[in-house]
Specification:
By secondary structure, the protein is α/β, with parallel strands linked by helices. It has one domain: Alpha-Beta Barrel (TIM Barrel), CATH 3.20.20.370. It has helices spanning 51-59, 70-73, 76-87, 121-139, 155-158, 161-164, 219-228, 234-240, 256-268, 294-314, 322-331, and strands at 11-12, 20-27, 65-68, 92-97, 145-148, 168-169, 194-195, 203-204, 209-212, 245-248, 273-279, 318-319. Strands 1, 2, 3, 4, 5, 6, 7, 8, 11 and 12 form a ten-stranded mixed sheet that branches. A hairpin with a 7-residue loop joins strand 7 and strand 8. The longest helix is centred in the last third of the chain and has 21 residues, at 294-314.
Amino acid sequence: MSADLPFADRIAAVLPDRPTLVVVVDTEEEFDWLAPFSRQATTVTAMRHIDRTQRLCEAVGIAPTYVIDYPVATQPRGYEMISEWAKIGRCDIGAHLHPWVTPPFEEALNGPNSFMCNLSPALQQSKMRELCHAIVANTGADPRVFKAGRYGIGRDGLALFDDLGLVVDVSVNPCMNFSPENGPDFSSFDSFPFWIDRSRRLLEVPCTHGFVGWARRQGLGLRRAADSVRVLRGPGILSKLGAVNRVMLSPEGNTLDEMIALTRALLNDGLTLFSMTFHSPSVEPGHTPYVRSQADLATFLTTIERYFEFFFGELEGQPSTPERFRQDLLGRSSITQV
């Protein structure tokens, strides 16, 4: 899929003068991450506790962007609370496409088809329309930000952005290669935002994901080599040696120290726009691999809170949203909206 990634004309976006943080929440149904994909796993009970992370965001002035999928957008217990917040500016609502639970259901239910970029152009567009129309009808919000489930963005999906009013994509996950699962290969991408098209209408705000350690500059090559000898636990050995460790700016599967180390490393590289991401079901134990117990939940919430203390305290950072960042770019004299 890497050859079909729709980013050939990417143009670097102007970065903020100060460290700036956005929060993107993959707002979705609960399902067994280790089980085969199911069209019946559509419960959204964890959304009754989404205020747990919302409060942490509001305490530092962040309006999180909830990219919501079809089960959330079509069940009142999924969308009612965040809809009320969106109406008074406490959050933004975007779109998040899980193909396996978004109608129409014309594709075979399997791993490759969980990446929307593997579906036919017509089916991708039908699912995107169905999702965005449900969001508008049930929340009153016009989604402007899009995230493909499993990061499965492709050329055909982006082709519908203008028609649906979408202007920011947040699907790129740097350093990750999903091609063994028939997904996209983002291993050559970094965390810097960029304009997807030469007309500077569509903006990409990637996940913040990179390498830390004394050999981080060779991180991609070393990680590939380590993965090839996974039977020997190559990635773990590199991490324990302090050589290279792949870290995502997420409280899921990453420690506070790792997130801070990644932030410092990328700041030294010149990055000033950071995107923290996590999944909505993690606000309640038992729904994701990252939060299985009350102790895990406490660690998850504390990691977010303390990272905010670091970012807005020590770094004197500022909050934003993906859409607001785009608006700021368009407001600069050097950028003209087409």
